[in-house]
Fold this sequence. Notes:
- By secondary structure, the protein is an all-alpha fold.
- 74% of the residues lie in helices and 0% in strands.
- The longest helix has 32 residues, at 230-261.
- The protein is globular, with a radius of gyration of 21 Å.
- It starts with 9 loop residues before the first helix and ends with a helix.
- Pfam families: NrfD.
- This is Putative sulfite reductase-associated electron transfer protein DsrP.
Amino acid sequence: MLEKVLKGSPKYYMWLAFLGGLIGVGAITYLFQLKYGLSLTGMSRNVTWGFYIAQFTYLVGIAASAVMLVLPAYFHGYKQFKKIIIFGEFMAIGAVIMCMLFIVVDMGMPQRMLNVMLHPTFNSVMFYDMMVLIGYLCLNAIIGWKTLECERFQVVPPQWVKYLIYTSVIWAFSIHTVTAFLSQGLPGRHYWLTAVLAARFLASAFCAGPALLLLLLMIVKRIAKFEIGKEAIKTLTIIITYAMCLNVFLFLCEVFTSFYSNIPGHMHPLHYLFAGTEQGLPWVTYWMWIGAVMAIGSLVLLIPTSLRENMKILPWALGMLVLATWIDKGLGLIIGGFAPSPFETWASYAPTVPELLISLGIFAVGAFVVSILWKIAIDVKKEAGTL
Length: 387
């Protein structure tokens, strides 16, 4: 099936060349970071996580979200999703690869990654996070490739693939739970120190991932001329809506607990993010309110059935939802966790241009991988007459 990567239209090659250019920009900037160190970033002694870890956190959720297609299809026999499951699995592969690259650039020296594996610390959540991510990448690669191959030759996938699929469902929940444990297990970081953080992560992932998948499928549908299926879109948007409602509800629970209990440590981060402080940066407040407005706007468009099923409105609703969750679980979560510090001091953070360029290169790597894998999937499905 790999030969299908080499056969495409001029637009396909132009798209890959464009992504290659972005990857080149990111790689060159990363060489500067290797030479001058993490001083090129906005991180400091008091703010040790920044834009890289924010993207890592968000993308783990995107990877885990493939389970929202696998679960109904294989546990409840919902056949309408089987046509698009492969796209969710391949998107998960791209997301996990980006996660790993964000960890590499965040650690400064890439060889430090080897320390996690060569000298494992079994009480370290980071060690388990790396293990589950590698495992999830392998599971999706094997399952996706084997099922696509069987579809090509029109044969039933072997039984062992089903066992791997069942394993991948549990694995998907575990990768994002472990990622949440990385943050919520840190005493002194009051914004993260909450038992519902893992639940918030999962709810956010299960609305943002399918929303992004559906948006991308809508774009590819126009290019590759295939039908996603009205029933599949309808069911997926209902899942997205419920998950987003739960995500917002859990956030509001956090707000209530913080302000009703009047615990300063829990109120300060929310004040810093949404009301601003003398020590804060003004853009943070604007940034968070953009996210809040996008979240409310997406729910306004998704909850009424008539608006949710309108194909002209749906892409706007999904786009707003993706942007809102990216702000909330990305920079919003990271900045809120470091404001204030455990010593009640304030340290500001803003991503620098090198950080953004390196991140752009990593996003381009993910888009490159997903583009190639989706190209293979679409060609095979067209060949087999299953698209």
